[in-house]
Amino acid sequence: MKWSIFQNNNRRCIAKHAERENYQRSSATGCGSKSIILCTVLLICLFLSGCVKYDLGVNFDNSNHGELVQHIKLEERLLSFSGDSVYEWLNSIERRARKLEGKIRRLSKEEIFVSIPFNNGRELQTKFNEFFHPNGTQKPGAVSNESNEELPKIESNILLFQNNFLLLVRNRLIYDLDLRSLGVISSNGSVLSNPGSILDLEFGLNTPWGAKTVEKTENAIVPEKNGNQLVWRLKPGELNHIEVVFWLPSPLGFGTLFIILFVLGGLYLRYSFMPDPRVQFASKG
Predict the structure, then answer these.
(1) d(CA 150, CA 79)
(2) Terminal CA-to-CA distance of the chain, rounded, Å?
(3) Which residues are registered as beta bridge partners of 170?
(4) Residue 245: what are its φ and ψ, rounded to 5°?
(5) How much is the pLDDT for 181?
(6) Confidence class of residue 282 from pLDDT cuts 50, 70 and 90?
């Protein structure tokens, strides 16, 4: 999935831009220098297509191993106007990934690739939440009131249910991402910009045997299929729901089966091609 952690910068830009009309009608003092820079970045993005390209994906090898991968690429035009804040955001991604035992490849100044391993469904959920919600465990007082007012609220949640059937594991993945707050709305309710022209977001799922989507809600997105990979194009400004079922091989189950077959094979060889120990001891007596 291309999902934007860049939300930390974009949300500030969007919130400030949405408040612009109210600002013109009020006698409030001007925003700080940092806020002015962020507003400028948003105004520039409104005239540039694809300021941020974010790919987020989950790759499964088997039921006991997988990777959460992210590929982020920023337009050089965006870096030229807000280089310092963008570079700090990319650096924060590196720090969070290393904290979760992830690997980072800096392909260029504006492009980064991150992979975070996980060993089961519970670890996937834990690392996902820790990475995308690093302040989720903070106390309410730890976040300033100013930040709460400036940043639109974006809700995201991933769930993975696993049922073991000895040799195979049935997986049901549910992902909900609420991007409705990214839609820039003016005071009279009209949309000021199309967030889809600013953010290019995708979510991908790669499994050994493919997957089947479950479309139960009106917010479900139809994916594009490429071999055993499914890719969903997320919609900024809307509520996105993804639900999919897939099967994975169980290394533990196949290991147990191998041990059982090995023991049975040994017993067969012992009693088929070697003399019975009882007969051998009786002849010696």
Answers:
(1) 22
(2) 76
(3) 163, 247
(4) -120, 135
(5) 72
(6) low
d(CA 102, CA 96): 8
What gap in Å lies between CA 223 and CA 166, rounded to an integer?
Answer: 30
183: nearest Cα among 175, 193, 173: 193
| DSSP one-letter string for 71-122 | EEEE-HHHHHHHHHHHHHHHHHHHHHHHHTT-EEEEEETTEEEEEEEESSHH
The predicted model scores a pTM of 0.69
What average pLDDT is seen over the chain? 74
Chain centroid, CA 45 distance in Å = 24
DSSP string, 141-194: GGS-HHHHHHSPP-EEEEEEEEEEETTEEEEEEEEEEE-GGGS-B-TTS-B---
Q: What's the Rg (C-alpha) of the chain? A: 26
Q: Which residues contact 228 (CB under 8 A, 6 or more apart)?
A: 206, 207, 208, 209, 210, 211
Burial of 50 (0-12, 13-18, 19+ CB in 10 A): middle
Our separate counts of H helices and E strands in the chain read 8, 11
Q: What is the pLDDT of residue 8?
A: 44
Query: 210 Cβ partners below 8 Å, 6+ apart?
Result: 225, 227, 228, 230, 246
Give all strands of the β-sheet with 168-178 in edge-to-edge order: 155-165, 168-178, 239-249, 212-213
Give the tokens for residue 203: 């979510």
**52-100 pLDDT, tens digit each:** 788 999 999 998 899 999 999 887 666 665 667 778 888 888 999 999 9
